[in-house]
């Protein structure tokens, strides 16, 4: 042993028994404790090293355990090991590897993978300085022994994962380390490694297919960063191509060739490489896709062809910029010679094979889009791609529409890829796409009764997709281009009049309604078709379809349809409301029967009903009657359910009742979204109806159970009523606020504050008496909630408090900016102090940029309002003691990020300082330039060091400006967007000439006017920042 162990020389056998997965909890706990003991010990790992080197244990779990201990030592303590200990690790690994060479039985894969990780970690720590011959030592030991080569190849893959894999994020230090390793490997050992790979591939291609596949994977992984000429040569490529004919190897050989093709290189050389590969593959018969039955191999081959095609596209793109017409043309010719193969793969019945070639197809279309004129062959290619896409969009017979699983999700994603191709086709040849879709659609609609559902669905789907492939401004597909508008109108007439909405398959039904709503502007041009479509929405085809999925989607689509065409609905309003009446009923929890629509779906139905009533041409009294008939059943059900809830003791029943009550309030609230600036609640005569709703819903705030659900619902309704009813809602606000402030949780308060802010911003002086009463109770409730203790690791509680703070600061900001500062000023000196100190605390102490910004905006506004001679008594003293220091302290906090993009103002402010602001203060250009250069340095340390230079700079500035100290704050914080705004407010309103003409710098601390003194408040959550 390299050094004497503090632990026994033998391992704890009883602890090792706990490594068995079947061991009881006591033994497993002991094994875990033993593992931690060995990890923490300085030399306990040596016991494990000895066990591995001598092969003492045959149990796989013990061997894995020993490698884990060794891995931890290398990963976290390698730097503290002396030379003898590092040598012991190397010797242990090599002795263990030597035992594998002599063993007749291979280790389990999980043991070999862990061993490879330990080898790779050792390599990363010691190469190239301590163990420069790592690979040569490995290769000389293993030779061509299969067991040894297995470990060697797994080690190479583990090294790739640690050093090369771009999917793994590395620190800058790790990136530098990895670069050194790769550079050293290129120089020292890569040729030897490549030679070893060739020998493995050649020797074991028939006898050890797994080993050969491993080696192919290694070649594919390393080819991205080694010299390509070592691999892309006749000897190596011919060997790889021969593997394409071996069933066990060809999938991995495809992947390896893909990585070779994907290697970055000169475009001309890349074209030659791809062409040479294609010639050999074509000669070997691999281009005859129809004759190949192995879909797994074809999926890999499709990926290879896609890589070769995209490589040629990239070469053409680069060469087209050089102006070399000959070479560019040859590359395009080479690319287009692969199009027939691409089409075979694109249209293949297996979607994985087709999906793997979509990238090449898309890039090829992108090239065609750039060409000034298409040849006849290129036009033919475009049409062939179009037909392939149309065919592949079709559903399979096995698609499960009612219980969509993983296969269905994969097909949906595949369809999205095909849609991208369709969009690209529209850019290349919009006329061809329009005509092709029209032909397919018209033919299918003529015979939909005898056509399979998937063909009918895809015909309508293609029509739907035209709406995005051939975009129009605001969905105006039926104006502008006459050919396009005429074709689309013909197709819409066919869709509606064909009767295809009667097709008995949910996919066709849904596609019909989706398409009708996609082209809803058609009905503005031809409104005579509206009744037919309305009936489809309202009967068994739509809202009363047998499938819940269809009903749910149709409820949403019907809402969109009505919102677009409400001006054309006047003749049908009352008929529609009658037909959907049963769909607007509140489903009580004790009903027991499943409703046709969910509560979320009913929201759309209530909004639709509201839109129909509000936007109809009926007089106001009729609108009021219709709205009352819509909402009265909700109010009646609400009263009954609320009475039941107050008496219910079962918690599950309480929850169900509260949810139902919440839905009732939500439905009423949703109807109000129909009102607008033109059609207000008053003009429609509906104020009284909504006031009745308010009176019905507000008693829920005093319900002793399920407070959170009920308060949230009523609060949302109040938000809507403030917008809709305006001043008429004000009498209800005080009582509602009183109830909502009782027994508050953080979330309750956080959601209540926006309501008060909305009232403040909208009604301002009208609610001044109410705000006068509620301001401090609300603030004290917030303080009380924020002061509640919480567990240190309770992230949910911490986030709730952070959001509550933000809401609180936002509320104060609303008060200040809405002219309600007098409400705060009238709260008394002690209370206003508490509020002001929370704002200082938010600006300085909390590492929350959102809250900090709000706090400084508040302070800026308060300086503007209260900083002058007529402002709040004692506030100037508060500015000196707290606001000004906060401007220095906040940006110097370690949590303050001056490099945050949202706080950078940019060079235009520096320009403003140098050219306008500073010269206006008679500051010399030299001093101004010196200051601005310091402030533009990206390193925050420069900003801190600037504080040390402050006296030197101030001495030169003071003679020019009596308030230059405060001007310096602007300089110091010029990098931060909100600070100059805030501090310029101080200059403008507090240190303007009328206010500071009698002040002198030398004595400003003692000579400033004093009013009421602000004492430090004694509060739990605040501290004095003086």
TrEMBL record:
Q: Where is the Exportin-T C-terminal domain?
A: 330-948
Q: Where is the Exportin-1/Importin-beta-like domain?
A: 109-257
* Function, in words: tRNA nucleus export receptor which facilitates tRNA translocation across the nuclear pore complex.
Gene Ontology MF: a single term: small GTPase binding
| Cellular compartment(s) | Cytoplasm; Nucleus
Q: Which family does it belong to?
A: Belongs to the exportin family.
InterPro entries given in the database record: ARM-like (IPR011989), ARM-type_fold (IPR016024), Exportin-1/Importin-b-like (IPR013598), Exportin-T_C (IPR045546), XPOT (IPR040017)
Q: Quote the PANTHER family the UniProt record gives.
A: EXPORTIN-T, EXPORTIN-T/LOS1
Q: Major location, coarse class?
A: cytoplasm
Protein's gene: xpot
Q: Does the keyword field hold RNA-binding?
A: yes
Query: What is one process in the GO biological process aspect for this record?
Result: tRNA re-export from nucleus
Assigned keywords, A-Z: Cytoplasm, Nucleus, RNA-binding, Transport, tRNA-binding
The name of this protein is Exportin-T
Cite a GO CC annotation: nuclear pore
């Amino acid at each position: 042993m390299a050094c004497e162990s503090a632990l026994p020389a033998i391992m704890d056998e009883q602890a090792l028994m706990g490594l068995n997965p079947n061991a009881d909890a006591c033994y497993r706990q002991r094994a875990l404790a033993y593992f931690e003991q060995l990890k923490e010990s300085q030399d306990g790992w040596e016991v494990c090293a000895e066990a591995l080197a001598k092969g003492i244990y045959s149990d796989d779990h013990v061997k894995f355990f020993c490698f884990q201990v060794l891995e931890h030592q290398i990963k976290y303590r390698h730097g503290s090991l002396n030379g003898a200990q590092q040598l012991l690790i190397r010797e242990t690994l090599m002795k263990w590897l030597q035992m594998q060479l002599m063993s007749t039985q291979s280790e389990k894969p999980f043991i070999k993978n862990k061993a490879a990780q330990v080898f790779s970690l050792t390599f990363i720590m010691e190469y190239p300085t301590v163990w420069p011959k790592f690979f040569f030592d490995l290769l000389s030991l293993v030779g061509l022994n299969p067991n040894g080569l297995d470990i060697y190849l797994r080690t190479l893959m583990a090294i790739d994962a640690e050093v090369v894999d771009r999917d793994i994020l590395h620190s800058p230090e790790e990136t530098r380390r990895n670069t050194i390793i790769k550079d050293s490997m290129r120089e020292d050992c890569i040729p030897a490694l490549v030679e070893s790979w060739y020998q493995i591939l050649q020797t074991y291609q028939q006898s050890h297919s797994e080993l050969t596949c491993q080696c192919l994977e290694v070649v594919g992984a390393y080819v991205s960063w080694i010299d390509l000429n070592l691999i892309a040569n006749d000897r190596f490529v011919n060997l790889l191509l021969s593997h394409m004919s071996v069933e066990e190897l060809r999938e991995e050989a495809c992947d390896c060739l893909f990585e070779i093709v994907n290697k970055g290189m000169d475009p001309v050389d890349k074209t030659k490489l791809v062409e040479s590969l294609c010639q050999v593959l074509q000669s070997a018969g691999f281009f005859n896709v129809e004759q190949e039955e192995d879909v797994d191999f074809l999926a890999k081959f499709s990926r290879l062809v896609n890589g070769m095609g995209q490589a040629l596209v990239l070469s053409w793109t680069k060469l087209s910029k050089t102006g070399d017409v000959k070479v560019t043309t040859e590359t395009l010719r080479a690319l287009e010679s692969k199009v027939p193969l691409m089409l075979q793969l694109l249209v293949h019945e297996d979607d994985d094979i087709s999906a793997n070639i979509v990238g090449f197809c898309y890039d090829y279309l992108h090239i065609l889009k750039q060409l000034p004129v298409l040849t006849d062959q290129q036009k033919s290619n475009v049409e062939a791609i179009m037909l392939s896409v149309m065919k592949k969009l079709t559903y399979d017979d096995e698609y499960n529409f009612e219980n969509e699983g993983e296969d269905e999700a994969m097909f949906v994603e595949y369809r999205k890829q095909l849609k991208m191709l369709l969009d690209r086709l529209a850019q290349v040849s919009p006329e061809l796409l329009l005509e092709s879709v029209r032909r397919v659609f018209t033919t299918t609609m003529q015979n939909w009764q005898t056509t399979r559902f998937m063909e009918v669905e895809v015909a309508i789907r293609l029509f739907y997709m035209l709406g995005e492939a051939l975009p129009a401004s605001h969905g105006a597909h039926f104006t502008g281009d006459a050919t396009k508008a005429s074709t689309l109108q013909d197709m819409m007439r066919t869709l509606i009049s064909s009767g295809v909405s009667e097709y008995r398959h949910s996919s066709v039904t849904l596609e019909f309604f989706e398409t009708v709503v996609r082209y809803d502007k058609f009905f503005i041009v031809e409104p005579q078709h509206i009744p037919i479509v309305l009936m489809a929405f309202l009967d068994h085809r739509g809202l009363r379809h047998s499938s819940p999925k269809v009903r749910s989607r149709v409820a949403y689509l019907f809402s969109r349809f009505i919102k677009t065409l409400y001006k054309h609905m006047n003749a049908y309003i009352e008929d529609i409301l009658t037909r959907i009446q049963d769909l607007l009923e509140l489903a009580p929890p004790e009903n027991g029967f499943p409703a046709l629509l969910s509560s979320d779906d009913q929201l759309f139905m209530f909004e639709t009903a509201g839109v129909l009533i509000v936007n109809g041409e009926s007089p106001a009294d009729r609108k009021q009657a219709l709205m009352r008939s819509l909402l009265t059943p909700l109010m009646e059900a609400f009263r009954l359910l609320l009475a039941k809830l107050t008496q219910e003791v079962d918690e599950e029943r309480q929850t169900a009742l509260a949810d139902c009550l919440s839905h009732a309030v939500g439905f009423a609230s949703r109807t109000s979204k129909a009102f607008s600036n033109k059609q207000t609640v008053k003009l429609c005569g509906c104020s009284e109806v909504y006031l009745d709703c308010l009176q019905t819903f507000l008693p829920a705030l005093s319900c002793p159970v399920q407070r959170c659900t009920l308060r949230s619902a009523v609060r949302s309704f109040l938000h809507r009523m403030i917008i809709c009813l305006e001043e008429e809602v004000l009498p209800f606000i005080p009582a509602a606020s009183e109830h909502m402030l009782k027994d508050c949780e953080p979330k309750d308060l956080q959601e209540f504050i926006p309501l008060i802010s909305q009232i403040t911003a909208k009604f301002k002086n009208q609610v001044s008496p109410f705000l006068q009463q509620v301001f401090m109770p609300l603030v004290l409730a917030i303080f009380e909630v924020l002061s509640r203790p919480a567990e240190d690791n309770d992230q949910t509680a911490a986030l709730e408090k952070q959001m509550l703070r933000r809401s609180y600061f936002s509320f104060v900001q609303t008060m200040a900016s809405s002219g309600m500062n007098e409400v705060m000023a009238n709260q008394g000196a002690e209370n206003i102090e508490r509020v002001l100190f929370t704002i200082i605390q938010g600006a300085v102490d909390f590492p929350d940029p959102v809250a900090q910004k709000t706090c400084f905006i508040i302070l800026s506004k308060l300086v503007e309002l209260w900083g002058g001679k007529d402002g709040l008594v004692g506030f100037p003293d508060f500015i000196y003691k707290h606001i000004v220091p906060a401007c220095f302290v906040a940006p110097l906090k370690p949590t303050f990020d001056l490099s945050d993009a949202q706080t950078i103002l940019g060079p235009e402010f520096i320009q403003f300082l140098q050219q306008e602001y500073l010269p206006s203060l008679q500051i010399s250009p030299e001093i101004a330039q010196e200051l601005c250069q310091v402030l533009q340095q990206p390193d925050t340390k420069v900003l801190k060091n600037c504080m040390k230079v402050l006296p030197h700079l101030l001495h030169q500035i003071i003679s020019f400006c009596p308030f230059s100290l405060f001007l310096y704050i602007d300089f110091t914080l010029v990098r931060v967007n909100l600070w100059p705004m805030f501090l310029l407010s101080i200059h403008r309103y507090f240190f303007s000439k009328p206010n500071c003409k009698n002040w002198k710098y030398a004595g400003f601390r003692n000579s400033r006017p004093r009013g009421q003194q602000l004492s430090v408040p004694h509060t739990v959550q605040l501290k004095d920042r003086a």
